[in-house]
């Protein structure tokens, strides 16, 4: 079975639950006293998607302003970016929109953007309406899910959706490339004979 390595980065304000989402996905556990991320941390997890294995190379970034300048190192070359906000904090949704703008300007052109409204277990103190976030995500063609790293809601689904959006190795985009290569080699053959 073909193995593909997919670089994925997590972006979003400090405290929205980026590291908790990664921890839930990779280790299937939740630590309420998780340490704040310094700089960035790296984890991997491999999942099967149809007849391919997707090895997610996950870069979990720190949200603090002083680390912001480092973000391009993580989203450059990424197949997908997961931008996380906290449904109980309106300002984290504003930060998310700024990340979308930055990715548009400086990110890889075909990056899959996935938006995660985390802490959906705290519905009682919600500040961001699900419909508003969903409409916004649709308008920018992003994956959207509300997640809870704490209660393991929609974490696997988030990554499954990302896998779905990544063009498969034999999709038209890549077979187009293959065709060009074939033509080049047959042209070379023509010259030599
Ligand atoms: N209620 C609730 N708390 C969460 C959830 N995810 C993370 N947290 C808490 O939010 C805080 C920040 O989490 P962390 O993963 O460090 O956020 P990061 O700074 O974005 O990496 C921690 O106290 C977590 O326990 C969630 O889904 N629900
Ligand atoms: Mg963190």
Automatic annotation (TrEMBL):
SMART domains: RAB (SM00175), RAN (SM00176), RAS (SM00173), RHO (SM00174). One of its GO terms (cellular component) is phagocytic vesicle membrane. Keywords: Cytoplasmic vesicle, Endosome, GTP-binding, Lipoprotein, Membrane, Nucleotide-binding, Prenylation. One of its GO terms (molecular function) is GTP binding. Coiled coil: none annotated. Residues 184-193 have a biased composition (Basic and acidic residues). The keyword Lipid biosynthesis does not apply. It holds the Pfam family Ras. This is RAB22A, member RAS onco family.
């Amino acid at each position: 079975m073909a193995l593909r390595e997919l670089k994925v980065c997590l972006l979003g304000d400090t405290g929205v639950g980026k590291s908790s989402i990664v921890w839930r996905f990779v280790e299937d556990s939740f630590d309420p006293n998780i340490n704040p991320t310094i700089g960035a941390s790296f984890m991997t997890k491999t999942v099967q998607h149809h007849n391919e294995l997707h090895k997610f190379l996950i870069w979990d970034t720190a949200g603090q302003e002083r680390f912001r300048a480092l973000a391009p190192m993580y989203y450059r070359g990424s197949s997908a970016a997961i931008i996380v906000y906290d449904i109980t904090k309106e300002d984290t949704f504003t930060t998310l929109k700024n990340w979308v703008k930055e990715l548009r300007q400086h990110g890889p052109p075909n990056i899959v953007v996935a938006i995660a409204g985390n802490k959906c277990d705290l519905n009682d103190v919600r500040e961001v309406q699900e419909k508003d976030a969903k409409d916004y995500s649709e308008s920018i063609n992003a994956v959207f899910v509300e997640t809870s790293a704490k209660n393991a809601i929609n974490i696997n689904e988030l990554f499954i959706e990302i896998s779905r959006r990544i063009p498969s190795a034999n999709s038209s985009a890549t077979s187009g490339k293959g065709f060009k290569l074939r033509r080049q080699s047959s042209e070379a053959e023509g010259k030599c004979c």
